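Homework help board

Subject: predicted structure for assignment chain

Our instructor gave us this sequence and asked us to write out the predicted structure in token form, then describe one feature. I got the tokens but I'm not sure how to describe them. Can anyone check?
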Amino acid sequence: MRITVPFNTEVAESLRAGMTVLLSGRVLTGRDAAHKRLVERLDCYEPLPVDLRDQVIYFVGPSPARPGRVIGAAGPTTSSRMDKYSPKLLAAGLRGMIGKGYRGPEVAAAMKKYRGVHFSAIGGLGAILAKCIISAKVLAYEDLGTEAIRELEIREFPAIVAYDCHGESVYRREGEVK
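My token output:
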């Protein structure tokens, strides 16, 4: 399924865990340090440096671009590292996230409540995934270097719907009750 990002709740509700998608459009990037700053601003009722409404954040800290390239390797980072921040960002309008690995129960509950989704991208393919990135520009927190918030324009970026907004997931751990 092809999806244009950013997207609204109607699109989120059409996605089901296990679906393979190709994402095209504009996404934000952000990892631990950027997420922490965003949540600190929300906690202080300060405006965010980027609009999160209906946006997707890719958990990536790309390597520097080689000459003639838009970006360096851009593989996903472990999603659970953002778990303590994601519920507040979803409440602020974030619609989706891209990373690798499972999410905690609080994040899964927040995705259901705020109609968000989590996509998994394949780790170890940073150089290949970078070929799906058409442009990149820093929007906020430039001092964080590779962890700055960027806007990426992506074309046919492959991902799997790992968690949908209906409470379903491709990750089921032994002993986990649905």
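Reply (TA_rk): Your tokens look well-formed. For the description, you could write something like this. The chain has a mean pLDDT of 94. That's the kind of observation they're looking for.
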